[in-house]
Amino acid sequence: MELPPPQNERGPLTHHQIFSDEKSLKALFDVIVNPVIIIDRVGRIQAVNPATHQVFGYRDYEIIGQNVNVLMPEPYRSEHDEYLQNYFNTGKAKIIGVGRDVVALRKNGEEFPINLAISRMDRVDGTFFVGVVTDISLQKKSEQDLKNSEAKVEALFDVIVNPVIIIDRTGRIQAVNPATRQVFGYTDDELLGQNVRVLMPEPYRSEHDGYLQNYFNTGKGKIIGVGRDVVALRKNGEEFPINLAISRMDQESGTFFVGVVTDISSHIKLQRELRVAHAQALESQQEAEAANQSKTLFLANMSHEIRTPMNAVLGYAQVLQRNESISTAGQKQLQAMIRSGEHLLFLINDILDLSKIESGKMDLNVATFDLSLLVKDVLHILKPRFQKKQLEYELNYFTDKIFDVQGDEGKLRQSLINLLGNAIKFTDRGKIVLEVRNPKPEHFLFLVKDTGCGLAPDELAVVFETFAQTEEGRKRGGAGLGLSITKRQIALMGGQLAAQSRAGEGSTFYFSLKLPRPSGEKKVNYKSERITAIRGGISKRILVADDNSTNCEILVTLLTPVGFDVAVVSGGKDVLSELQTSQFDLLLIDQAMPDQTGISTIEMVRKSFSREAFPIILLSASVLESDVESAYRAGCDYFLPKPFNVEELLHSMGTLLDLEYDKISLEATEIHEKDVQVERLDISDEWVSSMIAFSESGNIDDIEEMVEAFEPTDQESKNFKHFLEDRIAEADTITLVRFLKKLKTTLPGS
C-alpha cells in the first residue's frame, strides 16, 4: 500500500516546499547516519550533525567555529587552506562534486580512512561547502585482509614442497609452483600454456583429454576429490611413481583444476624394504621362538635337576629335625639349612619366570603368609654375610606375635633380601637395621638403614635406573640391575621404592605396601607346628610310586612314625598291578619315572578305578603351569612340588583322608642379648674363659659340648643357654666372643 504524498489545505506539497523551511532541513540534517559538516569559504565549521559527534568524538561547542583542518591529520591539515584558496582563485577543484578516499582524525588522535564527498552551496549570505563523510575503516580492513590473504596464498603456493599444477578445462597449464620445476625439471616458460599430458607417459598421455571430456559430459571423475597412485614423466624421460590429488576450482573467469603431486618413489622403495624386513623379522621371530622354546625346556630341565637333589637334602634335613636326640643347637642349624634351601627354591622359581620378566609380564602370586616369620627368615638367610663383614644388624618390628597377611611372599622376600644385600655390600663398619612399621591397618612401611658410604645427590637421582652404577658400585662389582628390578617388583605389589642418603653418612631405602589381613579360615602355618601322629591310633595304607630309592626312603621314614603303613613300587606300570592285589587309602606318585610319567600313571589308574576309590597326590620336580594343569586334568587331587615340606604333605593327606593329627608347637621366643641379665648369672670365670677361647678359635664342637653340659637353674640361666644355642646354630662366634667378654667383666674378681 502506498502512502499519500504530504499535503496541506491547498493540496499536495512539492519537494521544494517540503524542505524550504529550516525546521524540515534541520530534521533531515539530524537523521543522516553519515557525518555531515558545513564549512564557510575560509574553512570554518558552521554546522555538524549528530553523526559527526559520534564518529569524531567532538561536541558542538568544541568544533563549531574551528577550522575544519582540526579533523585532518598531516599533511592534509597544512595543505587544506591552500586548496581552498586555489579553488577560489582558479575555479578548479580536485574533489568538489566527487568522492575521494582520504584520512581523518578523531578527537582521541586516532587516524581512520574515510570517503569524503563535497558539494558547493551558494546562498544569499555566502558560499558554503557541505562535506559528507563515510567511515570506510571496515571496508579498508576487508581490502587489506583480502590482500593479506592473497599474499599468503601466493606465498603458500610458492613454499609448498609438493608440486602444485593448475590447469584449465581444456588441460592447459595455467600455473605451477617452484616445486614443480624441481621435480619435473621444466622451467615455467616450458610448461605454461602446454597441455598437462606433457608430464605423463603412455598410456596416461593418450587417455587424458578423454578423461577431461568425459568428466564434463557426465560429471563423473575417477580422481577428482580423491588421491590416486599413477606414473609421471620428468623432462629427462624418467618415469616415476606419484600420488595425484585433484580438486575442482570454479571462479568467475572459468573452471580450473588444482593437482597436488607427491613423489612416492622413496615410499615405494620403503615398502619393498619393509616387505623384505618383514620376511626377515618373521624368520627371526620363528628362530627366536624356537630358541625361547629351547630355553624354556632348558630351564625346566635345570629346575628339575636342581629340585631332585634338593628334595633329598631338605627331605633328610626334615627327617633329622624329627630326631629327638639332635641337640637344640643342631635343630636350629637344621632349620637354617631348610630356610636357605627354601630361599633357593624361590630363586629357582624366579629363573622359571624368566620369560615373563623378559616380556615385562610379571604376575603376582598372592597368598596368606606370616609377615613376622618372613622378616626373621630374611635376616637368618643373610646372617653369614653379616658375620663375614663383622657387621651388626637389628630388627625393629612392630609386634613379636604371628601376623598373617595376604600378598606376594616371594617378591616381598626377594625385595628385602636385595635391599639388605645392597646395604651389606656398601657398608664396611657399623650397623644395618631392618625396620617394619604398621602405621595404620593393612598398611606397612619397610625401611632398610645402613651406615655405609652413602650417595651423592647426583647418584641418588639415578640410583633406580637400569644399569646405573655409582663410582663405589663399580669398584664393588655388580651389573647395576638389583635396585631397578626391586623397584619394579615393589611397584607390581602396589608400592613405591624411594631412598634418602648423604655421601659418607649412609642410606635409607624404604617402601610402603598394603597387605590386607586374611579373611575367613586362617591358613595353616606349617612352620609353627609339627605333626607327631594320627589321632586315635588309626592307620592308613599308602602306596608310593617312585623309581628313586632316596625319595622312597625319605617318605617311608617321615610317614611311618606318624602312623601310615607305606608300600613302595618303582614304576608307574607296577601301580596298577599293586592296586589289583592290595587295597590302599591314598597314592603318592612321582612325576618322573622311567617307564611312564606320573600323569600317565594317574590317567591309567583313573580309567580302572573310580575317583572315590582313593585320592592321588602327585610329587613333581617340574612346576611349570602346563604340568600342574595336566596333572589335575588327569585326575590328581593334590599337586605337591619337590622339594616338599613334610608338614604340607601331611596336612594335604589329612585333608584328603579326613584325618586329625596330634601336634606339638614349634614356636619359640627368640632370645636377644638384651634379654640376658648377665649380672645375675652364677657362672665361673674358668667356664667363661674356656668359652671365649673356643669361640675365638672357631671350635664350634667344643662350644656346643660345653653349652649342652650347662644346667640352667632359673629363668635367667635358661635365657642365657637359649641365647648361646642361637649363636651356635648361626655359627655367630663374633657376637658370642663380644657377649662372653662382657660377661667376664661382671664376674667377681674381674
Q: From the alpha-carbon coordinates, what is the Rg to the nearest angstrom?
A: 51 Å
Assign the CATH topology of the largest domain.
Heat Shock Protein 90
Largest sheet: 5 strands, antiparallel
Return the CATH architecture of the largest domain. 2-Layer Sandwich
Count of helical segments? Answer: 26
**Biggest sheet: strands side by side, in what order?**
4-3-7-6-5
The number of strands is: 26
Helix content: 40-55%
Whole-number tally of structural domains: 5
Explain the overall architecture.
The protein is an alpha+beta fold. The protein has five domains: 19-141, PAS domain (Beta-Lactamase), CATH 3.30.450.20; 160-263, Beta-Lactamase (2-Layer Sandwich); 362-514, Histidine kinase-like ATPase, C-terminal domain (Heat Shock Protein 90, 2-Layer Sandwich); 529-665, Response regulator (Rossmann fold), CATH 3.40.50.2300; 673-746. It is 45% helix and 22% strand. The strands form seven sheets. Strands 4-3-7-6-5 form a five-stranded antiparallel beta sheet, with helices on both faces. Strands 9-8-12-11-10 form a five-stranded antiparallel beta sheet. A hairpin with a 2-residue loop joins strand 16 (431-440) and strand 17 (443-449). Helix 10 (265-321) runs antiparallel to helix 11 (328-352), helix 13 (371-388) packs parallel to helix 14 and helix 23 packs antiparallel against helix 26. The chain is elongated and about 150 Å long.
